Protein 1
Amino acid sequence: MISRRDLHELLSHPPDTESPVLSLYLDVDQQRAVNLNRGFESVLKSMIRRVEHGLGHNSRLKEFLADARLAGSFVSDYEPVGKSLVFFCDASKGFIWHRSLNVALDSSVHWTPRAYVRPVVEARDEFERCGVILTDRARARLSTVYLGSIEEHHEAFAEAEIRKVEASGMDQMFSQKNFQRKADEHVRWHLKKVAEMADRLVEAKSFGRLILGGTHEVTAELKNLLSERLKKCLVGSVTLPIDAGTADILRETVALEEAVEREEEEVLVRRLLTAAAKEKQAVVGLPKVLTALNLGRVRRLVYSDGFNTSGSECRECAGLFESFAENCRDCGGLQIESQDLLNAGIGRVLREGGEVEQLKSTAAVRFLEKAGGIGAYLRF
Ligand SMILES: [Zn+2]
């Protein structure tokens, strides 16, 4: 898991050209043959060599090698968990930060004045926290899915199960006709309880999306019983048996989430382009986005998958510019070159409490490309 607070911590360090941060993303997935026998260690070594060659006789080479040694020794002791390792370090400051993620990320090494957070921010955007309610006529299972991992919340089982036992005893006292009516009442009672449990879950785990699982009949009835808050989160239903394995729940949920994400992107980009055309707190195109960023106006940054541009970042005012000049045009402070200006832009948006949306849907990307591949919703 990588929380928003984690990102804030990583982004709180000011850019430092004297002592850059080594950012490492390593595919350690043990389901992949290439990673058996610790194949990821040789992947790391060759990535490190590539950066080292790139630096040539740079005076900071020693600094890089110290960071690389730190990463190397960490990875050689690392027991793979999940699919990817995310690791940041700066040996000169004694800084190390790492997490294991259950999301596949491409392996890469970056040595930059600021932590290179873009891949992990994009993964967080793609896999929003999602609540999953799997239910039949008598039982329920509540889980949350986040960044490729599933967590089940067991208290949900017990409450519904107890009622089921009581109900069976009582039901014997009724005739067949009454039995059916009682059974239907019981299902409704059960689903009401499930809806209440779901409310407590959204309170505790604050997910933004909800998926219902079960037969069409049961999910349709449950849908009507959900609170307004949960109805707003609901993105769809999947057909799954109540005793489905967690791997099956995870697979179905992630597939639905991806489809929803793509659909939402298309809506988002259409609205963005319309708002920008009407100049209603939205802009498109890099120059306007940078101006808005530098004024702290960006509420939601939107860009096409793979968008990249180089430029410069001011060390004093954190201003971002398309071209490189020694001194900042806003404050006169010293600037540093940035190979991936978007990484700096993402950092700035997140530090200021905004959001980031990477577009992957082919249609959404095509629309935004026509407007320069990047845009933003503004705060004011
Ligand atoms: Zn400046």
Protein 2
Amino acid sequence: MADRSFLDWPFLDDHHRLLAADLEAWCAANLPVDHTDVDAACRNLVTRLGADGWLGHSANMERPELDLRALCLMRETLARHDGLADFAFAMQGLGMGPVTLFGDEQQKQWLLQTMAGTAVAGFALSEPASGSDVANLATTASPDGDDWVINGEKTWISNGGIADIYTVFARTGEGPGARGLSCFLVPADTPGITIEERIDVIAPHPLARLTFANMRLPASALIGTAGKGFGMAMAVLDIFRSTVGAAALGFARRALDEALGRVSTRELFGAPMAAMPTVQSSLAEMALDVDAAALLIYRAAWTKDDGAARISREASMAKLHATEIAQSVIDKAVQLHGGDGVRSGQMVERLYREIRALRIYEGASEVQKLIIARQILDGVAEN
Ligand SMILES: Cc1cc2nc3c(=O)[nH]c(=O)nc-3n(C[C@H](O)[C@H](O)[C@H](O)COP(=O)(O)OP(=O)(O)OC[C@H]3O[C@@H](n4cnc5c(N)ncnc54)[C@H](O)[C@@H]3O)c2cc1C
């Protein structure tokens, strides 16, 4: 059982502690699931997470504010048990993030379905030529009477191919670059959408490249104000970035647990591995990394929950540090397992594959460094 002492930290309230205990019990009873067919597994996870009320935390019909500490706790708990369960949970929130934060009452009706687990959500921002460079995206949305007509291509779209509803970012041209983007709510059965390619990755999840050919949307599909799409995407990522760090933290905690189990039970040279100073040094580094990441994540989440309008610096630090240390913690756990560490299907081998993409999506590590540097330089300029 992973170290739970962080639950006593003052960043968390009693309802968070109860939530963590309840979800832990749910995970122990329901996870991991069979990943052989990731589409079916993912749909099934969304259904079960919804039916048992967990997806209600991914959106809020009355208040756009989300309980970020709850989201982080949930992602780290789910990730510790099953990466696909964390993915299924997270995408319902990220996919509907623009609606939760900026949608009108009619658009929010979709939240009832995504929270109940009866509709799967996707977030379509990245394009073949603009993943990190979001402001440069090329998909267009042109007004035509009361409608919008969308043309373009999106790639790396999580839940692409199984989603029922997407939020899609497109260029509407109110201004240059970032100042000319808007966000639209797009049911997956809208004529003009094609799933061009399903993408296989080292830790399989439903992923696809989509195209839009003269896809016609009513005026009511526009989320918020035309031209404000870039700020909306950044506000959504501001929230969900800390939760990517939390998922990485869940993977790292599981790796530390697995390593502790291994070194406590395996003997080498006539003594338990756990008695070897170099092994203890690895364990100490892993535990230190895990605690430091947790502090950054719950600092970011607490800052948001405490009323901060934006947490760009805190969220970027949390995501950057947690994903980078998780990679290193998992690598140490693989090493401590020897040959078993790279045996297909072993938990540490799965974690080794699961963690890699988290250092790339929702802003690669280098992009997080740019954001942090910009924030601290702005602070210097203001003083
Ligand atoms: C598993 C997975 C799931 C994803 N899910 C989604 C999704 O649901 N929706 C969605 O819209 N997108 C999604 N993405 C896309 C993801 O956000 C992009 O892959 C990511 O933003 C990087 O963009 P890119 O792949 O085009 O790489 P590029 O933009 O070409 O960047 C390549 C590398 O260049 C470096 N780099 C980038 N910018 C800088 C810089 N400013 N300074 C220095 N170095 C830099 C980084 O190391 C980066 O990894 C997903 C990606 C993956 C792998």
Protein 3
Amino acid sequence: MQIIDLRNNNIIITGAGSGIGRETCLLLDKLGANVICLDIDKNGLEETRSGMVGQNHEQYVVDLTDEIALKEFADDVILKKSLIHGLVHCAGISSRKPLNVLKKEGFSKIMDVNFYSFVELVKHLTKKKCFCEGGSIVVMSSISSIKGYKAKTEYCVSKAAVDSFVRCMALELASKRIRINSIMPGEVLTPMGIKAREMALLSGTDEIVNQPLGPTEPYEVANLIAFLLSQATKTITGTSVRIDGGASV
Ligand SMILES: NC(=O)c1ccc[n+]([C@@H]2O[C@H](COP(=O)([O-])OP(=O)(O)OC[C@H]3O[C@@H](n4cnc5c(N)ncnc54)[C@H](OP(=O)(O)O)[C@@H]3O)[C@@H](O)[C@H]2O)c1
């Protein structure tokens, strides 16, 4: 039998300065992991760190859209930790644009954070032998990957790309015994989730994500992430797990 055990695991979390990323850092700290926290927001990162008690955590202020900084980050982490057990991509941005204002630049901006930076991280971290056999990668998708929402095209497309990438990588990385999965929330009570609801109410035209079981708390998503990171799920790969209170049923 295997319970969730992440003691001394070196785990990278992007988007660690807020919401789901922060909650995951706090949980992994309690579970004894060494957390490598990344965010663009220095103050947010410091606030997250102040809630953690472990002594072996690292903090990096990095803009994930800066490819050079991203590569330097990956190289530095590999140098310091030599072996990585997990990667969790929680950094993300959203947008609200109807068809008549959609442009290539807008897609690029959202794809850079939600998708391309994740591709680059997976590429840098799984080369050679830096990512541990039996290691696990988790990325935040959304039910927007499988559902349409008015004026959310850029965001929905970026999440569909993430899920497609996960399925392909599950096969490519299986020979290294690295697993990769995504998580599809509906509405989570974080700054992003709360703002999305406010914007939808203000516009009066957008669809609001209505979860029959009510909104999801960030700690629920963090628990699911820890579960997927652990050896308790050693044959779960290439899948997208819904945590949406029934919104997509
Ligand atoms: N909350 C929801 O209802 C919900 C639902 C479905 C899926 N998700 C997904 O879950 C993930 C986490 O969402 P959340 O609700 O926790 O959002 P959040 O509270 O806004 O946290 C996201 C974090 O990512 C950081 N970030 C943004 N751009 C970055 C960049 N270029 N480089 C480095 N860090 C960057 C943000 O910094 P700034 O604040 O400075 O931008 C913020 O600290 C996202 O992928 C989101 O799409 C959320």
Protein 4
Amino acid sequence: MTEKLFQIDPYLKQTEAEIVEVSEDTLALDRTIFAPEAGGQASDLGTIDGIDMLHAEEKDGIVYHKMADIPSGFKAGAKVKLELDWETRFDHMQNHCGEHIISGILFTKYGIGNKGFHLGSEFSTLDADMKQMPQEMVDEVERLANKAVFSAVPVTVDMIESKEEAQKLPLRKELKVDEDISIVTIPGIDCVACCCPHPSDTSQVGLIKIIKAENYKGMTRIYFKCGMRAFEDYKLKHDIITVLNKKYSSEEHNLIENIKIQDNKNNEMRRDLYAMKSKFALMEAERLVADSEKVVSFEYDDQSLDDLKFMAKKIMEITDLPVILSSTSCMTVLLTHSGKSKLKCGKLVKEFACGFGGKGGGSDTLAQALFSDVEIMRNFVKISLMSV
Ligand SMILES: [Zn+2]
């Protein structure tokens, strides 16, 4: 069994230990300050004799430390120096304890259990046993969680010898072990069996921010950030709001209203632009159709493929003649008709564009071909005109 010093003193950042077992890339020690991965929480990080300890995991009471390297001096009986990556540990402690607070409030105030927890690298999640959590409830849980932080409620850990003894406590979850049970208590908030390191009071958790709550497999998955993560999140969002305030000449209280006003203006401008474009395209279509006998064809030098399609649509509103439009700007030829022409647009592209430096395809009534050489594109237009 490895003596788990992190359970006795979660603030212990360095110590000495003796190697009891060495394998290809792992070490087992007589004692450790590194909390192994457990219950959805990532492993601690740190160094052993200056070499990176990458991952700790527990099997049958023994903590195995995966190392970046195993030097020849790492032998059973050797003494080594353990250094904890405190920043990572404290981040884990803040977010882990934040989960205790949120889960504890859900249970004590609403009688809702927690079905899962994951401490991720960006945010943490917990799965509340409730199908659809109303936003007002999410807001209230968040408010109460932060109130618990401001109240600096002590977090205590007690080792209880027997299951019978532990079951007398107001536990949030059923016990999975029978003896030597580590019970974490936050008076008035939470009481549950847990082996992870915890801060000594709730104030150290810092800000608790629920990012979102969504339905997940019949439960509500709550995404949250605590401590430094919540602070960084606040900073990021504040920076975004500052940029938006400048852009929309606003302050926080009228920013959303000003965005809506600007959106409406943009929509109006879009509608006006579309109307003008349609009017112009129709005039252009009438001019082209008036000059055409068997086919409507024109080469543009500034039109995109979408422009060509828009123009072709307008032409087809007033004629059944086939339409062959091209643009040197997008190097594309568009062939289309209403169905009353015998022109097989897609076949033409396949036979005379693909294989001659062009690519594309389409149906009998609509096809397009993209070219990289303007002369080849013009030759394809000539062949298409002869095919009509
Ligand atoms: Zn815990």
